[in-house]
Amino acid sequence: MKLKNKVCIITGATSGMGKAVAQSFSKEGAKLVLSGRNLDRGNALAAQLPHSVFMEGDVSEPSYNENLVKAAIENFGQLNILSFNAGMLGLGDVVNLPETLWHKTLNVNLSAIFYLCKNAIPHIQKRPGGAIVINTSIAAFKSFPNHPAYCASKAAAVALMKQMAVEYAPDIRINAICPGPVDTPFLWDSAKAFKNPDSAVEDAKNATLLNRLGTPEDIAKLTLFLASEDASWITGSSMTIDGGILNA
Ligand SMILES: NC(=O)c1ccc[n+]([C@@H]2O[C@H](COP(=O)([O-])OP(=O)(O)OC[C@H]3O[C@@H](n4cnc5c(N)ncnc54)[C@H](OP(=O)(O)O)[C@@H]3O)[C@@H](O)[C@H]2O)c1
């Protein structure tokens, strides 16, 4: 029970990695505020996990982030941990990317982190053992075609993580995980950005040193480690979890 009675907000909990994080945090005794847009998937997950509530909304809205924190305090009386997983691709090269899509991608992948942290940090600081884990991407360090908004937002999210880790130490440990290709709907959507969309996912798999895609559970294990006291001397780190693809 690595997170017994810890109260956690998990964004992107309706699918892929965020859902796996929610399931693993729950097994470890956490109480959860689950965030996402899809009402059916969100309510179904909350029904499966004890001590959890689902809040539907768009993370790019500041007031929704305020409400996530209120839900944690009203339902569970405290807040200890944030796990950021909501994300979007916003595909298109700089010349053809509509300004609205640029801004939306930056809002969902970057500003949403600012909005939730702004509201959550004063509550997390009230107790020892606070932790924030931000799911970014290897796209913070490596460029991909038609991903300018995505790469820029993920690199900025790593920079924001490092700044906050300095600002809020030693009260709160703040780290980023940087996944490579993980088998979720998001990865299959990203295939259309590449020259050979039909083989893009297989190509990514073959480009890893470990010769497989990541699973949401691989990511949940690292998120749990960083959120728990097992990582009590780790803050300000951006950890790649990518089957070795960045080093290939
Ligand atoms: N899959 C990969 O290969 C990969 C690699 C590196 C990094 N990542 C990052 O990993 C994170 C999780 O992605 P995933 O692969 O697990 O994708 P996924 O299965 O498509 O899940 C994405 C999640 O983000 C939520 N979301 C998206 N836009 C939102 C918004 N405006 N407001 C609220 N929630 C929103 C979705 O909610 P609804 O479904 O309810 O709309 C969903 O829960 C993302 O930040 C992504 O950038 C993915």
From TrEMBL:
An MF annotation (GO) of this entry: oxidoreductase activity
Alphabetized UniProt keyword annotations: Oxidoreductase
Pfam family, one: adh_short_C2
Database matches in InterPro entries: NAD(P)-bd_dom_sf (IPR036291), Sc_DH/Rdtase_CS (IPR020904), SDR_fam (IPR002347)
Protein family per UniProt: Belongs to the short-chain dehydrogenases/reductases (SDR) family.
Name of protein: Uncharacterized protein
